[in-house]
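Dear support,

I submitted the protein below through the web form. The confirmation email said the job was done, but the results page showed an empty box. After a refresh the structure appeared. I'm attaching both so you can tell me whether what I see now is the final result or a partial one.
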Amino acid sequence: MPRYSHEDLKNAKKAMTRRFLARAAPPSNLERFALSAAVSAHPRSNLVGVGIGPKICGGKETSTRAVRFYVEQKVPPSGLTEESMLPSEIDGIPTDVVATGRFRLLSTASDNRLRRRPARPGSSIGFKIPPPKDTFVMAGTFGAVVSRNGSRYILSNNHVLAENGIVALGAPIFQPGLLDGGNAATDQIAALTQFVKVGRTGGAAVDCAIAEIQANAKVSAQLMPGVGSLKSANPVAAKTGMKVEKTGRTTGYTRGSVFDIQADITIPYEDPGGEFDAVFTDQIMIRADAGMFSDRGDSGALIVDRATKRATGLLFAGSRTHTIANHIAVVLEALGVSLEIG
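What the results page shows now:
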């Protein structure tokens, strides 16, 4: 039996997040160019997250619980300097290094990109980007229908509906998103109502927003094919190994399993002041059963537990191999809303 508790693991993870992630700065343009051909071994550039899970040996999970270092790419020991080496243990707690690639927001780059009436979760949605960036178009994923005090809303990510304050409250939300052929004159189904701002300092827990559904808009709470209807409006807590599914704007219906439920991840973000690196704490990490679980444009998709057909997460970021999601119960509490099941 290990001589350390789960609380010890959590404390060690938090210490490594403060040590490596909270001090991270966005790579310079020169570093970004260099990374197209090589990966810097220094934690400032290569480390993208810290989590907790079984130590992996020979490609298989062991019974040993460890603090995980998630890196863009593993570097052979011969390529490491003393300065760039991550600790092999933290006060007697073992560590592990897992290659995940670099995480990014999955808001813009199937059939889920088409115009749907009624509009349904899993389909394309988006906003009209204001000047001076209005030469770009975007699309993300309609996650779920939620309600509060008799009003109904679309649930998705902050960066899909609000772009962290770049889009004004009351702005129209379209289905499909304008990137997917939505018509700004005819395809508005909701208006931005509320978002949880992602700050430049401190850890973030959620990337979420809601848009109130227009009175004349036809919207169903039933998810796109594959997931279908939720069995309960009550969410279920994610657990390591949980088998999950989602349907999104880009990759449609996919299946995977939960790899971590307490991952601290650094992700490039933006607000009216410009770009910055945001640290999201205690996030769900998912690996696909086959292929990719998500890709650009799947941001906002609802993650559903396959066994119970209850919501467990809200997808917002990912890499080539791993997907990141907020815990849905934290999202609903932050916005003061409840899920509708259709």
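Response: this is the final, complete result; the empty box was a page-load delay. The mean pLDDT is 86.
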